[in-house]
Design goal:
single chain; alpha/beta; 7-stranded mixed beta sheet; 14 helices; 16 strands; 35% helix
Length: 484
């Protein structure tokens, strides 16, 4: 079978590395042979691979960076809408789902000559419905909000590819998040950034503006071998209590993954493979618990000036099935200190807009940021381009985001905060590796620190950079006196 694993733009290389690691797991090898496509040299929005059908279970359970795992159903040339209908109606959809299940169809395009994607979507939807009605005598209902089955089609200039979505709800929706903080960061983007930093379990990790804890929770789950799909897979049984506000109530073991609502995965042999995958994961988690019995042993900590977000972080930590309470303090980033007995480590942060930094006037900016984030819901408000991985927001949203960034850059109090924070990094975090995700391309100049690397990424519709700063070792007083 052919799969396309979708990821945020800029994370193709980390995703390819992750897929190779998943493929090498003994329980994945037991499913059959995996052949992963070469790592792309330019943005593709994901990675393709050939693998057994069962591998969809392992991919959805284990991939931290993937947004969706799409199963390729057909690929063919096209010239007009009728070609889409002919291809879709010729597929045996009745082998995959029933007319009693609800359906959603999405179409994305890159340089397609067709004038209307809405009409293209309608033709594919009609083809599937007509096929099932002809074969079964009944037609499925359409549900764009909570569908049982999702079909995705992608159009290039000359080719159409039709996929079945094996994920269901987007995979960044882990199920542990209570609600969004002021500067929402999707979990799979956070996991991809962790990979880029080179951080490894056992190494010190600190986020002085941790918000609701996305970076730190992802890191802690990696250290403890807790897969991102643990809650959906029902690994914790009745012990897991996903938040009622966890994006949608469907992100629970009750609704699971998309593949669990497809007929072939209901086969007894596939069910047995699914149980084996979960048992293997649980055994691994138990072993890691011995290595990291408490939050102290993880070496992962954070701080935030906002008391509400610190409390939210603690709740998220517990729902993510992590031990004890997180090492987090309510503290101004300018007063943060490296964890005790730590000479060097990795600092990773995504600076928020004004309110969490107590910048005057920040409340309005935060409100606008939240509205823009809700406006960028990837499945209903803009088109996810599978070819580039770039999520094209509506023009008005893009313009508003640019205005918001410009306002932030020009806010003298925010600029002064960044100058002070840059000096604080120099004074308190010698020998540390600092990584900052931001949409502000001028950030290094505002911190007055020269970056050693910049990586282009996309946080929803926002084009961002992950800046790396290598801090110089702190010079001792004795050394300075000797030089004088």
């Amino acid at each position: 079978m052919r799969f396309f694993v979708v990821c945020p733009g800029g994370l193709e290389v980390p995703l390819a590395q992750e897929l190779a690691e998943i493929a090498q797991r003994p329980d994945s090898k037991a499913l059959g042979t995996w052949v992963i496509d070469p790592t792309p040299t330019s943005p593709t929005g994901g990675i393709g691979l050939a693998a057994p059908l069962s591998s969809a279970m392992a991919l959805n359970l284990h991939s931290r960076i993937a947004s969706r795992v799409l199963l390729q159903m057909a690929q063919a040339p096209y010239r007009q809408e009728e070609d889409l209908y002919k291809l879709a109606s010729g597929l045996a959809w009745e082998d995959w789902f029933s007319s009693k299940q609800t359906l959603r169809v999405d179409v994305t395009a890159h340089r397609s000559p067709l004038k209307s994607l809405n009409f293209a979507t309608l033709k594919i939807k009609d083809a599937i419905v007509d096929r099932l009605r002809e074969v079964t005598g009944d037609r499925p209902s359409i549900d764009t909000a909570f569908p049982d089955v999702r079909v995705q089609a992608h159009l290039t200039a000359t080719q159409i590819t039709i996929y079945l979505d094996t994920s269901g709800e987007a995979l960044f929706k882990r199920g542990w998040r209570d609600e969004k903080g002021d500067a929402p960061l999707k979990e799979n983007l956070a996991a991809g950034i962790l990979s880029i930093t080179g951080w490894k379990p056992g190494q010190t990790l600190f986020d002085p503006m941790c918000g609701s804890g996305t970076f730190l929770i992802e890191a802690a789950q990696i250290a403890l071998s807790i897969p991102p799909g643990a809650i959906r897979a029902g690994l914790y049984g009745d012990d897991a209590k996903p938040s009622r506000l966890a994006y949608r109530p469907l992100v629970t073991s009750a609704h699971g993954f998309g593949f669990q609502r497809l007929k072939p995965f209901g086969d007894a042999a596939e069910q047995k493979r699914w149980v084996t995958l979960k048992e293997s994961v649980l055994a691994q988690i138990l072993e890691k618990r011995k290595q990291y019995p408490s939050s102290d042993s993880l070496g992962i900590s954070g701080g935030d000036i906002n008391e509400k977000l610190v409390s939210m972080f603690k709740g998220n930590w517990q729902r993510a099935q992590l031990p004890g309470q997180p090492l987090v303090r309510q503290v101004d980033a300018l007063a943060s200190k490296p964890p005790a007995n730590t000479n060097a480590g990795v600092m990773l942060l995504n600076p928020p807009y004004g309110e969490r930094l107590l910048i005057k006037g920040g409340r309005g900016q935060d409100r606008e940021a939240r509205e823009l984030d809700s406006d960028a819901e990837p499945e209903s408000r803009f088109e996810l381009n599978l070819e580039t991985g770039r999520q094209s927001a509506k023009r008005s949203s893009r313009e508003s985001l640019k205005k918001l960034q410009a306002q932030e850059e020009q806010d003298p109090k925010f600029v002064e905060f960044l100058r002070q924070f840059g000096q604080h990094l120099k004074d308190a975090y010698g020998s540390w590796s600092i990584f900052v995700l931001t949409a502000d391309m001028a950030l290094p100049g505002q911190l007055r620190i020269k970056e050693s690397k910049r990586t282009p990424l996309f946080n929803g519709p926002l084009e961002c950079r992950l800046f790396k700063f290598e801090m110089h070792p702190k010079r001792s007083t004795a050394t300075e006196s000797a030089e004088e």
